[in-house]
Amino acid sequence: MKKFLIVAHYSRFLVQFEMNNVKILQDMGYEVHYATNYKQEDMYADAPQRIQNAGVILHQVDFVRSPYNISANIKAYKQLKNLMNTEKFVGVHCHTPMAGVLARLAANATGTKPVLYTAHGFHFYKGCPIQNKLIYETAERFFARYTDALITINEEDYQAAQTFRLRGKAYKIPGVGVDVEKIRSMQVDRAAKRKELGIPEDAFVMISVGELNDNKNHITTINAFIQANIPNSYYIICGEGELKSNLQKVIDENEMHSRILLLGFRTDIAELLKSSDLFLFPSKREGMPVALMEAMAAGLPCICGSVRGNKDLIKNNKNGYITEKNTADEYSCIIKMIKKQPTMMQSISAEAKQTILQGYSRVAVSEKMGNIYRNLL
Q: Which end of the chain, N or C, is less surrounded by CB atoms within 10 Å?
């Protein structure tokens, strides 16, 4: 059986985003291998077992996030090179910045082709710090010469990729897709779910989903919620991260611990979305955000920042709202406006569902990825 390699720097990446691609490749008759640093998991502790249960052969590579840890990156490169020389893969699909760089270098050194790289949001983007352009754009332009398929997931990145001197060509797919039908058809007892969280049945509930880090920018919407001061309103945030204690401190200082709930890592996101009334998404940077797509599939009106990915999904305030500067003041004003106009909220919800149904489903993405694999392999 021919062997195909997927590479990313942490194992839960495959579980969260790439299981559809695994199935496509397996259905095409390939034995799928996955090179990753599964010894440094902080979430999804069961990811290695789930990967192996899916018939994927797992390989440990000591990836690190930082491009500045030279000795660690050299070690990971040598591990990848040895793996490719040993297993004789007929292709490699790499993800995440440093894993993408090292995998392309190793593939070039071992003659492994074709090489696919999915950019889940370039680290250079409109309005980014100058060092991002100097480091990440320079690197992406250089490694384009070793790339047979550069797969982008939003319009801004696709336009940038068109200017690279690729060995192959650039593609655009609508993210990793969401299971629209599953979310749309899910029946949830809103009252029971709210009771489980200690939230009144008749409350106005806002929700955010994302890691508790600087990029996800939850502090902005926490301040917006406090500023809006809507009676009988609650805000739930799903995710873990290094800023959890900082955010909790702000919540406690404003005596909002009973109304702003940090729920941590959750496996019932779709149920929580369907039990909420409004989705807040204040990220500073995105590729093609799964959390936003899932919220739209659940029919929630959404408020988000004016960044790539978001702008592909939210159009003309018909299926959601994009803030101009991503400030607490803007979120607060829109939250109060939506709360006062229930018919507007219903109209936005219907438009949001329709947007997702028109091409961002997992089925649509799988069809496009299947075509890319077949063309190259």
A: N
